[in-house]
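Thread title: Can someone regenerate the structure for this chain?

I was given the following input by a collaborator and told the matching structure tokens would be attached. They weren't. Posting the sequence so someone can regenerate them.
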Amino acid sequence: MAKRKHKNPQKDRKILADSSPLYIYGSHAVRAALENPKRRIRNLYLTENAANELAEMLARRKITPEIRKAQQLAALLPADAVHQGMVLETAPLPEPNLADLAASGKLLLLLDQVSDPRNVGAIMRAAAVFGACGIILPRRNSPPPSGALAKTASGALEVLPMTQVTNLARALETLHKAGYMSVGLDERGDTLIGDVPKDRPLALVMGAEGSGLRRLTRETCDMLARLPVADDAGFATLNVATATAVTLYALKN
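Best answer:
Regenerated them for you:
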């Protein structure tokens, strides 16, 4: 009787992730993906007009697209997606190792269950502009690196290393061992963001809108900081993408 082989669930999950199609759409996102040598392209669907716009790039990269009508492209995507005549079917980008990100000694950004892909995309765009070295998300309750996230990121997905971790608190502990100081943004924080010391590499932690940082994440952070808010503002919170951009700017200056 043949010996039964035991399945490796980790390997099975990796194969599933590698084989699941990801769609990137919209002019900026698709152009940036096509320019990224690390991006593995499976299929490129374009309208005739879009193919003419990209003719020079396609010739340079030796890519032959499939020409489709706009309605056929829309059928591949969510109902509210604006594809601008361009849809790229692709594999996920290779994820950097957390230890490699920690070894950079540069600003890192961690998102604690920020689940809206448009928020994550806007955050990635701000992080790329303000010099973050990488972005770290929990594997659960985070959007896939495609679709609305890629379109909102407007190319930042191709230049900002992103990795997913099983446990965000343990990831913070890894960064602490590498010499990082973790700063969680919290409206109840004791320190103003402009007063955060910059004598060590910083890991900025942002929580989901409404619920904010989870308890364990908050307790693992070295420091909780807040944004300065006008006394007569009438409300104390910002959209998480806006808050991240303001915070990154403050930490950079």
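The longest strand covers residues 41-46.
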